[in-house]
Amino acid sequence: MSPDGHRLVTTVATLDDASTKYVSALWEIDPAGDGAAHRLTQGADSATAPTFDGSGSLWFIRKSAQDPDADPQAALWRLPAVGEAERVALRPGGVASIVTATASDRVLVLADVLSRTPDTDADVRERRQTTTTSAILHDRYPVRHWDADLGPGRPHLFDVAHDGRLDPVVTRPGAALRDAHVAIAPDGDVAVTTWRTGAPQAATRTALVRIDLRADTPTEPVTLRADPDADFFAPTISPDGTRVAFVSESVTTPTTAPMVTVGIIDLATGAVTEPAANWDRWPTSVSWSADGTALIVTADDDGRGQVFVIDATGREDREPVRAVTSTDHCYSDVCVHPDGTTLFALRSSPAEPSHVVRIDIADGAVTPLPGPAELPALPGTLEELRTQTIDGTPLRAWLALPHGASEQARVPLLLWVHGGPLASWNAWSWRWNPWIAVAAGYAVVLPDPALSTGYGQNFIQRGWGSWGFEPYTDLMAVTDAAEADPRIASERTALMGGSFGGYMANWIAGHTDRFRAVVTHASLWALDQFGPTTDGADYWSREMSPEMAVENSPHLYVADIVTPMLVIHGDKDYRVPVGESLRLWYELLSESGLPAADDGTTVHRFLYFPDENHWILKPQNAIIWYRVVLAFLAQHVRGETVDLPDVLGDVEIAPHDPM
After folding, report:
1. Contact 469, 493 (CB under 8 A)
2. Angle of helix 500-509 versus helix 470-483 axis, rounded to 10
3. In angstroms, rounded to a whole number, what is the distance separating the alpha carbons of residues 630 and 628?
4. Contacts of 84 (CB under 8 A, 6+ apart)
5. Which intervals hold domain Peptidase S9 prolyl oligopeptidase catalytic (predicted)?
6. How far is Cα 229 from Cα 247, in angstroms, rounded to an integer?
7. Rounded CA gap, 300 and 325, in Å?
8. What is the pLDDT of residue 17?
9. DSSP letter for each residue of 206-246
């Protein structure tokens, strides 16, 4: 949102002409809701990361998509309030992110630097390219993140001069600014950013530091908040520039789940307060109200993601936490209008993809705004299912049903287990979209078992370190409740999950034969193997003790698996390395209760993506993912043979007779 509140810009991704990749463009939304949305950037180039400066100029990152002669690096662009867009800076290695001040023309960018000093970066990059050098020499942990090799470049923070020159603002930050969250005071004089530091046993901690932007030369940051027992994220500076709000996450132990809270630092005194210390929800984002008296926070809440107001004055006559929204949606990317009465946000749910809405802070009224596209029609309905687990803990889930499902026309059931595990089924997903399965005639239940967010700290703690126990019994209780619905064909059920959900799929496959098929995507299989090889081994070492890893490892129950399994993995997955599925595949065929036949044939299948990561992102690969999953389910749940895409070669889904 522009500082004057008159303009609202978002990013929209669409398929290119060949339907092989996504292209992002900037679209302007009318905050009043009177005019139609219109596209700001044109052509095949991708435009991302829009942000306004104090003058009303719109800054963004643009990357050439098709021109073989164009520099492929992401360039910094500016669209003034009046005039045409212009390229401001193009540097080797590109630009990663932009931060702007709301009451000045200060603009900062994060960009990787390969050499010791930014001045020689271009020369070093050219030599690395011409000599085809790909080696990376690491001097610290970690070395990978999600699907990216870290290094050899390291992120630096630059001040953008009027002539497009990029001036470093801190001296040799090393890896401290990796994945940094940077905030600028409205007047542009001070920045506050996250700052990574090393910790014992190859761990890292994330602190908050203050950077003086008025200096003519790079300076050393000043630590605002650091704690060996916590990490700090999402800093945001108050409208008057005197305070910093942030999110804190406590360091876990194998017996203690993390706690996520909101804090405020007084920049003059360094004093820290927790304005919602007794609030039993985890904040996911934080912004200041226009007058600086409150924080606007989003948090998962009972299968939704609502907007809340947290008092920042400490006055006893003010409500500490107040819910603003109460709809069946998840809100994100909140923008605060300068009038102090209105918010703008993205809103989605399992039944609606993201769209822009206006929110009245006083009464919580939500108004959808005209966007680039209409919301899609769904092939079914979404209902809420509530039950309780064996220990009496309340449980809930979403249940998506095809149109026409009835006691006379019962439909098979798919149990989908979300990843995380600290997450919730409360938003739209293109990668795990239940409506594709619903359109194929399945009901899909989306449960939030123990460890899910939005139900309080105790709900997370009850599953901490015991993945194979409370989460498992919770999922079985939800499945029982769904199967009791007379519209469900309870004898025809299947199970699917990805990441932690894939772990649960593997665990469940070794502990019950109630499901006709199991789909396990990017899953954890052998926890002793997974722990040291994931990209965040330091975090995992605090998640479970070695004894817990043995107690909760699915691979120890491979002999009890008698259900056909579809194993899926991307080779570029560094969060759950592909070795997990390679081992699962071999042990499934050689040691399970449903092994390969003597001639090597098997009812199990392994869908492998050499160029994908933890998520299947390329459009045509995503289509293959859905088609193979639905073909596997059709064969084993319905007894129907569905042809596979011919681009997969001469393969098919083999039938299985459990008798």
Report:
1. no
2. 80
3. 5
4. none
5. 428-638
6. 14
7. 12
8. 87
9. EEEEEEESS-SS-B--EEEE--TTEEEEEEEE-TTSSEEEE
CA 648, 654, 658 angle in degrees (round to 5)?
Answer: 155
**549-577 average pLDDT score:** 98
408 Cβ neighbours under 8 A, 6+ residues apart = none
CATH architecture for segment(s) 380-648: 3-Layer(aba) Sandwich (3.40)
Structure-token pair, residue 263: 């804090």
Output DSSP code: residue 508. H
The CA-atom distances, in angstroms, between 209 and each of 267, 475, 615 are 11, 43, 33
Residue type at position 372:
P
- Residue scoring higher pLDDT (31 or 16): 31
The two three-digit tokens of residue 191, written as one number: 């920045």
224 and 231 Cβ atoms separated by less than 8 Å? no
Cα separations (Å) of 295 from 243, 369, 530? 12, 24, 39
Side-chain-side CA neighbours of residue 35 (13 Å): 11
Contact 233, 258 (CB under 8 A): no
Domain ranges of the chain: 1-89, 288-303+312-376, 380-648
Rounded Cα gap, residues 7 and 81, in angstroms: 10
Distance, CA of 416 to CA of 443 (rounded, Å): 10
- Cα(54)–Cα(102) distance, integer angstroms: 4
Q: Give the amino acid at 149.
A: D
The 8 Å CB, 24+ separation contacts for 352-360 are 352/428, 353/428, 353/430, 354/428, 356/8, 356/10, 356/29, 357/331, 358/31, 358/33, 359/307, 359/324, 359/325, 359/331
Judged against a pLDDT cut of 60, whether residue 68 lies above it is answered with no
Residues ≥6 apart with Cβ < 8 Å to 512: 476
pLDDT of residue 659: 61
